[in-house]
UniProtKB/TrEMBL annotation:
SUPFAM superfamilies on file: S-adenosyl-L-methionine-dependent methyltransferases
Protein name in the entry: Protein arginine N-methyltransferase domain-containing protein
GO MF term (any one): histone methyltransferase activity
Keywords in alphabetical order: Methyltransferase, S-adenosyl-L-methionine, Transferase
Organism, scientific name: Streptomyces paludis
Length: 363
């Protein structure tokens, strides 16, 4: 690594030793903003670049710097998510059915404000909606105002676990609406947020939307999926040690983009009732292969139960879902024989789901 005289190497980052010489307030804020970016302090970088823009007559000068910080703070999936009509309509129908006059609503994870706006439109007296990323919360506030619901909706720029009744919410909420689910359901810390909300922020008989969810797994044969997370020989060289750096847990990708052959039918591995505390769990699941073959990966997806007759899923057959699927490649390919029952372990620690094949085949 070549460092200039003004740079210093830490474990993994190159950080300017001192702010680049700054001549005026905007240059100083710019230099500190760049330093914050290199330290991965993106909220601070955003504030500093914005301050640089305010201090500078030609605000447009810092648009790209501000956008660099925004890109680090706001994942691209927000756009695909907001344009996922099936998701939006399922929530819209469930909220229209569950929320009405006289009710106070808590929406955890505002994003651009969709669920809060749907709740207000459905007649809620008041909606408190929270968002952990300041710049996203500020934009949601603008969207709420633009759509004429500023009187009904309060956007709080904080994590739900930091909210207090009497401070952020006038009283405990009658309804909780939320969509803080990743492709395998738990990865965005949904369970701790729901548990905290039930204890601290909701009435004892509050409606929780979604009220439950199921998680499914299916083993597939697919050398293409295997090659996303394993390496062997490359141009005559042995690259296999690099496989020690492969992911042990699932990653998000669309199963339909890869050649694959399902070997088992989908099996339910977990069922979550969001009205109850949910402890980490592990259990053995039985499956009967519908085909013989070599399993390279397990594909997982969820089904949310939003209200009577209204479900939402990111199953592989749902090609339009912005969520894609959770794919966990197996450390070793697993031979499965048609109609010969097998068992595997499914576990979750409240945030991450893991599937582990067991070698045994029940007698
Ligand atoms: C998947 S998006 C959903 C946005 C919006 N509710 C919708 O359905 O269009 C989740 C958002 O919630 C935020 N978030 C996740 N967990 C949160 C929490 N516990 N408290 C506040 N915000 C949270 C994330 O930063 C993200 O912007």
């Amino acid at each position: 690594m070549n460092l200039t005289a003004t740079e210093v190497a830490t474990d993994s980052l190159v950080i300017p030793r001192e702010p680049v010489e700054a001549t005026g307030p905007s240059e100083k804020a710019l230099a500190l903003g760049n330093e914050a970016m290199s330290r991965r302090q993106y909220e601070r970088a955003y504030d500093l670049f914005s301050a640089a823009a305010r201090a500078d007559a030609g605000e447009r000068r810092f648009r790209r710097e501000i956008n660099r910080a925004v890109r680090a703070l706001v994942p691209r999936w927000h756009f695909g998510m907001m344009n996922d009509a099936e998701r939006n309509q399922a929530y819209a129908r469930a909220i229209a059915r569950s929320v009405g006059a006289g009710q106070s609503v808590l929406d955890i994870g505002t994003g651009a404000g969709l669920l809060a706006l749907l709740s207000a439109r459905s007649g809620a007296d008041h909606v408190v909606t929270c968002e952990g990323v300041d710049v996203v919360a500020a934009t949601a506030r603008e969207i709420v105002e633009r759509n004429g619901y500023a009187e009904t909706i309060t956007v709080v720029s904080r994590l739900s676990t930091e909210l207090r009744v009497g401070v952020d919410l006038p009283r405990r909420a009658d309804v909780l609406v939320t969509e803080i689910f990743d492709c395998a359901l738990l990865g965005e810390f949904a369970l701790p947020a729901l548990q905290h909300a039930r204890r601290e922020l909701l009435t004892p008989d509050a409606t929780i939307l979604p009220r439950s969810a199921r998680l499914f797994a299916q083993f597939v044969e697919s050398t293409e999926l295997h090659s996303l997370n394993h390496v062997g020989e490359v141009e005559g060289f042995d690259f296999s040690p690099f496989t020690s750096l492969s992911s042990l847990e699932y990653f998000s990708t669309a199963l339909g983009n890869y050649r694959h052959r399902p070997l088992t039918d989908p099996v339910e591995i977990f069922r979550f009732d969001f009205g109850q505390d949910i402890a980490p769990a592990a259990h053995t699941v039985a499956a009967v292969p519908a085909e013989s073959g070599t399993a390279h990966a397990v594909v997982m997806w969820f089904e949310l139960d939003l209200a009577d007759g209204i479900t939402l899923s990111n199953s592989p057959s749902d090609r339009g879902s912005h969520w894609k699927q959770a794919i966990q490649t197996l450390p070793e390919p697993w031979r499965l024989n048609k109609h010969s029952p097998v068992e595997f372990r499914a576990s979750h620690d409240g945030q991450r789901v893991l599937v582990s094949p067991t070698i045994t085949t029940p007698g």
